[in-house]
Every structure is written in C-alpha cells, then in structure tokens.
Amino acid sequence: MVLEAPVNKRLLTLKELCDYLGIGMTKARELVRGHNGFGIQIGAKWYADLEKLNKWIDNNLQ
Asked: Quick check: 44 pLDDT over 80?
C-alpha cells in the first residue's frame, strides 16, 4: 500500500521519504544513493522522485 504524498510534490526530501515509507534516515539514505532509479542529487542534498519511487515500489511488490 502506498500512502499519499504531501501536496503534489515531485521530489521528497530524506525526512519526507522517511515519513512516507516509515523508515529511518539511514535506510532512506541507502535507498536514494543506491541504483534504484529514484534518487536525485542536487548539490550536496539527496531527494527521491515520487513518481519513480512509486513505480519502484510497485515493481518490487510483485
């Protein structure tokens, strides 16, 4: 089950990703820095592309 994201945001911060998935900061960093296709680095900060994250979740549930 995928929860609704806050107000039509395209990118989630690491904190928002933690809240969205119910995971800790260490796991969130691992996920966005991995080669999953949804992590985006802008400067020194990492974000998760919500659309790609949801597709990744759907693909990994099957």
From this structure: yes
